UniProtKB/TrEMBL annotation:
Organism: Eleutherodactylus coqui (Puerto Rican coqui)
Record's keyword annotation contains Disulfide bond: yes
One annotated GO biological process: proteolysis
Gene Ontology molecular functions: aminopeptidase activity; carboxypeptidase activity; dipeptidase activity; metal ion binding; metallopeptidase activity
This protein's name: Aminopeptidase NAALADL1
Taxonomic lineage from the root: Eukaryota, Metazoa, Chordata, Craniata, Vertebrata
GO CC terms of this entry: apical plasma membrane
Amino acid sequence: MLRLLGTDDYEVGTRIKGITARAILTLALGAVGFLLLGFIIGWFAKSSGSSNPSQVSQSMRKEFWDELKAENIKHYLYNFSRVPHLAGTEENFLLAKQIQTQWKEYGLDQVELTHYDILLSYPNQSHPNYISIVDEKGQEARQTGQTVVHEKACWRPRRTMIFASWDAEEFGLMGSTEWAEENVKLLEHRAVAYINADSSVEGNYTLKIDCSPLLYQLVYSLTKEIPSPDEGFEGKSLYESWHQKYNWTDFKDAPRINKLGSGNDFEVFFQRLGIASGRARYTKSSKEHRYNGYPVYHSIYETSEIVDKFYDPLYKNHLVVAKVRGGLVFDLANEVIIPFNAQDYASELKNYADIVNNMGQKHKSQLDTYNVSFYALYSAIENFTKSATSFHSRLKDLDVKNPLEVRSVNDQLMYLERAFIDPLGLPGRPFYRHIIFAPSSHNKYVGESFPGIYDALFDIESKSDQRSAWDEVKRQISIATFTVQAAGQTLEDVL
Ligand SMILES: *[C@@H]1O[C@H](CO)[C@@H](O)[C@H](O)[C@H]1NC(C)=O
Ligand SMILES: *[C@@H]1O[C@H](CO)[C@@H](O)[C@H](O)[C@H]1NC(C)=O
Ligand SMILES: *[C@@H]1O[C@H](CO)[C@@H](O)[C@H](O)[C@H]1NC(C)=O
Ligand SMILES: *[C@@H]1O[C@H](CO)[C@@H](O)[C@H](O)[C@H]1NC(C)=O
Ligand SMILES: *[C@@H]1O[C@H](CO)[C@@H](O)[C@H](O)[C@H]1NC(C)=O
Ligand SMILES: *[C@@H]1O[C@H](CO)[C@@H](O)[C@H](O)[C@H]1NC(C)=O
């Protein structure tokens, strides 16, 4: 999708290695976030005197947040969007080199441009409706290289962070997908989380978050610490203005968080590999403006000037989005215990099961005729819920100074999202392997829960062979059941 930041059209990968780096935290912060984070590393040279690792981490996060400045965001947005830089063009390559140089200056350990040969199609003015695939056979002057800088370690995150800026997103998420395929084993075994950055601001009304349920608690606690940028909410937190404007109402008394769909670079990480993912942006009021995105989306009028004049003249919404993304990345990389919560997953699973169950109950006689029941799925969710509850109560007594205990629960937390992956994928969609979430089959941008069951039930009355249609529903319920049951077991105490 489009980026107001205009930062996805080149490939840059950066690594910061933590001293105790066991796990990789992968993320693609917007340019704003990463440039500032690069700057922040030296800043943390002065260590805090407190001995509580969690307090130290939180005070460092505050200092990091204080370094984020609206005027810098404005400056970078202007600079990066000045020249058109379509994927695969010389301008795009030069911009990537510029970012690489700046990141090195900021002291990141390693900054590399990763080259992939990808077939791209460009519009042809004289034949606008003619589409062809042209193999450029290595015509592009891209380079690969590795540079290691940064000898003076000051503050370092506990876990490795990778900052990635993806190329060729509009052409089919190519940069992120190629990179994830190349690094698939590392990612499967070591990735804790992926935070996406795209379209920081699509309106000036309130915050919009799409993420794995594992991240809900972290998002809520961070937004309670960030001041609201909204008029009429002076002195209030972002959480409060967000809660008032976008209440979850029927599900719970908290700000609403959406499911991840696709149409963006988190897809391969979340939907294919099962890495807990999230994204944040500022958005318009969904009640007043019912259209998707915003009017100038993907047009040539989408410039930094339009942000200056209409969308975010003070860059205060950009700043808040940078703080949310940056705060997520910071805590995921730095907290001793990975800040995931499995209990929110449990309550969402119940919520999602109710949705497919209600779809099914519209066909009561068929449920009887073909002996279809959701009982086993509810049983698995109940078992998952018990496991999640006892896992979190054990966490309270954990000896955080015992590295083996810490390692053990962090592995359980890190691999929980992975446990929802079915290697066979969804019917007809082998790259969508998450059993709980997938892009909707009817709108790729939107997320669907229990997609296998949902798709089997969708419009089922119009299927000609009713027996095989309901057999497929049963098959999908079984897959969801054993997946949830098995995922819950990974949270049991390790003997
Ligand atoms: C953007 O920043 C780079 C690096 O500081 C500079 O070389 C370049 O001239 C700037 N471009 C514009 C359009 O301001
Ligand atoms: C556009 O299409 C025409 C007709 O196929 C072709 O002659 C021309 O080279 C194309 N232009 C570009 C820029 O590819
Ligand atoms: C920004 O907020 C004002 C006041 O709420 C509203 O009238 C305006 O339409 C918003 N601008 C955009 C671009 O959403
Ligand atoms: C959110 O909705 C719940 C349920 O209707 C309600 O009790 C609560 O007061 C609402 N919260 C806010 C901040 O509007
Ligand atoms: C219906 O399914 C249940 C298990 O879910 C099984 O015990 C029962 O025998 C089945 N009945 C028929 C008629 O297939
Ligand atoms: C849930 O746990 C109970 C008790 O261990 C077990 O009997 C039941 O089969 C489990 N449910 C599923 C779906 O495996």
